Amino acid sequence: MGGWKKKMDKAKKLHRPSLDDWECDQLYKQFPAFVERIVCNEEEHFKSFFLPHTNYSRRSLPVVLDTYHLSCDEFFDKYEGTETPCVIQNIPLEEDWPAVHKWTFEALERSDNALLDRRFKCGEDDDGDNITVKLKYFLQYMHHNKDDSPLYIFDSSFEDDKTAQSILNDYRVPKYFRNDLFRYVSESRRPPYRWFLVGPERSGTCIHLDPLATNAWNTLIQGKKRWVLFPPHVPKRVVKGKGLIGKDEDDEAIHYFMFILPRIKQRAAERADHEEYRDFACYEFTQNEGETVFVPHGWWHAVLNLTDTVGITQNFVSPRNFDSCWKETRTGRKRMAYKWLCKLKEHERDLARRALEINKSDNFRMKYDPEEIKRREDMEHRQKLQKVV
């Protein structure tokens, strides 16, 4: 027992060096009652919250769909095209993923030594460097930890070795999400976009937006997850619970779901007439095994593992969210954006023209466009000549 504990204690110290006692709130004692209330109460499974006089649509979200009765065109037109969050059932079964059998905890613990000895990312240190641990140590940690907010394997390094590559063979990108336009960007240049997830109960992800206006899908193979979604119009300071986080609390997922989210909804009800709470809405729901959550770009979301979980998630850009993603990428990833545009001119001419139209409409100059580079060089040359004169 000592071996895995020493390794995990070291990882925890690197991840949160200022936190001496990871069990200080003893949330492991409160958590079972919290989970039981959610899991055993049917009204909690899908729970929408609106203000009384909201002008925002009061429909229940996410929409629950079944892949056996959902064509790609229907999904594109009715749901992705309208930026509607969804839960799609049965994708791993319908597409015959090996992960259904290989990613249970029992199967992972019986995996070959190459996988068990492979190091997976479970956090970052203060310098932004990855903290990694062997899977066999992390699985032991899951069995024994009582941490308030445990470490969470959230690993995207599929290109590093054959063992990690084998994970890619255990699942398939669902048919609804295969037209990923970032495929035209090299793996070395595009930002991280796919993650293998192994999460102990009480771990999770803080409230966030996915980067570069990408859409996301998240498939759960084992366990239960609790989600909350906020529509894009809800302000950042509201979803972050600005002013509602106690002195001894932080924004870890467990604190957010158990304490901060209820305060956000209470504050919204109290200040319904305030501008920042106008048309406030949020959606809570439980994701079960075999379900795939689709999160459209711009939707704030957080996730809490109600039980130990295993899953996979990816971010992507399709023709239906291209405009938003292009605007974010051209400023957030300047060099990549130019390389991407060059590839789109070869393979997706209509979208390349669309990108140029957006640039022209916004009077946007691409930093790494050769014409823009020459323009800057000519300007610098003229400025130097003026200084000489």
Could you characterize what this model shows?
With 389 residues, the chain is an alpha+beta fold. It is built from 16 helices and 14 strands. It has 2 domains: 2-316, Jelly Rolls, CATH 2.60.120; 322-388, no CATH class. The chain has helices spanning 2-15, 27-40, 42-45, 72-80, 91-94, 99-102, 105-109, 113-116, 135-144, 162-168, 236-239, 253-270, 322-332, 334-347, 349-362, 370-388; strands at residues 46-50, 63-66, 86-89, 119-124, 130-134, 153-155, 194-199, 204-208, 215-222, 225-230, 281-287, 291-295, 300-305, 309-316. Helix 4 (72-80) links the parallel strand 2 (63-66) and strand 3 (86-89).
Summary of the model, kept short:
The chain is of the alpha+beta class. 40% of the residues lie in helices and 20% in strands. It has 16 helices and 14 strands.
CATH topology of the largest domain: Jelly Rolls
Quick one: biggest sheet?
A: 7 strands, mixed
What is the string of helix and strand elements?
A: HHHEEHEHHHHEEHEHEEEEHHEEEEHHHH
CATH superfamily of the largest domain: Cupin
The first-to-last residue Cα distance is 76 Å
Radius of gyration: 23 Å
Supply the CATH architecture of the largest domain: Sandwich
Decide which structural class fits the backbone: alpha+beta
CATH domain class of the largest domain: Mainly Beta
Portion of residues within helices: 25-40%
Round the mean pLDDT to the nearest integer and report it. Answer: 94
Which percent band covers the strand fraction?
Answer: 15-25%
- Strand tally is 14
Strand order of the largest sheet: 2-3-12-9-14-7-6
- Tell me the count of domains: 2
Shape: globular
Could you list the spans in which at least 5 consecutive residues all have pLDDT below 50? Answer: none
- How many helical elements? 16
